[in-house]
Specification:
Blueprint: H1 3-14, H2 23-34, H3 40-55, E1 65-69, H4 80-88, E2 97-99, E3 106-111, E4 116-122, H5 124-131, H6 134-140, H7 150-162, H8 165-168, E5 169-171, E6 175-176, E7 189-191, E8 198-200, E9 205-207, E10 210-212, H9 214-217
Parallel strand pairs: 1-2
Antiparallel strand pairs: 1-3, 3-4, 4-5, 4-6, 7-8, 9-10
Helix pairs in contact: 1-2, 1-7, 2-4, 3-4
């Protein structure tokens, strides 16, 4: 990563302090995890934060929330999902974020215990403006995100940070979201009889009376 990219992420991350305690740390981390400066990731970050505020909830540290993010693959500004993940704490590793592939810049945050949920979608005029920006024009022409001049990408971020939630998003009323009952997680390991690697017990398969992992099973 170029020194100027690192410096830009560090300085932009500091602006997260306006959201409250520790949010500068989360915001800066979001840039580094994402890997480049753009408008999509901060937009998703703001959406996730707006959803938390709407539910009167804090960033998830355990397993109590779930996010459905409506972006997908094969389109611009899917970066939105990285921002949503980092802001809400509903991470891929914890199995708390699912991408619906709708190709929309929206997300729904669900509290698993109360079943209360809120949907936050980016206003159409905000997306249209973003897609008409010099940043997206250069990306459309094949320029890599890290090769877009920082004056352009930083300008996008600063503009988003100056706008209110109402200017950026449509935030739904709180509604009930019925989730299917999730299976209880396992803390047990078994060893695959074929390759010798350990596998979570609830992901093992039985073949010819022996426990094996999914890749070795041939299923």
């Amino acid at each position: 990563m170029k020194p100027e990219q690192i410096e830009a992420m560090h300085l932009l991350g500091k602006k997260g302090a306006d959201f409250g305690e520790l949010w500068d740390t989360y915001f800066e981390s979001a840039f580094f995890i994402h890997g480049h400066v753009c408008g999509g990731m901060p937009l998703g970050f703001r959406a996730g934060l707006a959803a938390l505020n709407a539910l009167g909830s804090e960033r998830e540290l355990n397993m109590a929330k779930l996010v459905f993010v409506e972006t997908g693959t094969g389109h611009a500004a899917g970066c939105f999902a990285d921002g949503t993940q980092m802001a809400t704490g509903c991470t891929f590793g914890k199995g708390l974020i699912q991408r619906t592939e709708y190709g929309k810049w929206a997300m729904t945050l669900v509290d698993k215990d109360s079943h209360k949920a809120v949907r936050v979608s980016v206003r159409p005029e905000v997306m249209q403006s973003s897609f008409n920006s010099p940043f997206v024009k250069m990306r459309k022409e094949g320029t890599k995100p890290t090769e877009v001049p920082l004056e352009i990408s930083k300008g996008l971020v600063k503009n988003l940070l100056q706008k209110s939630d109402d200017e950026l998003f449509v935030i739904s009323d709180i509604f009930n979201y019925d989730l299917p009952k999730a299976p209880k997680p396992t803390f047990e390991l078994v060893t695959c009889h074929q390759c010798g690697e350990v596998v979570a017990a609830n992901k093992a398969r039985v073949k010819n009376g022996e426990l094996i992992c999914f890749p070795c099973s041939g299923y």
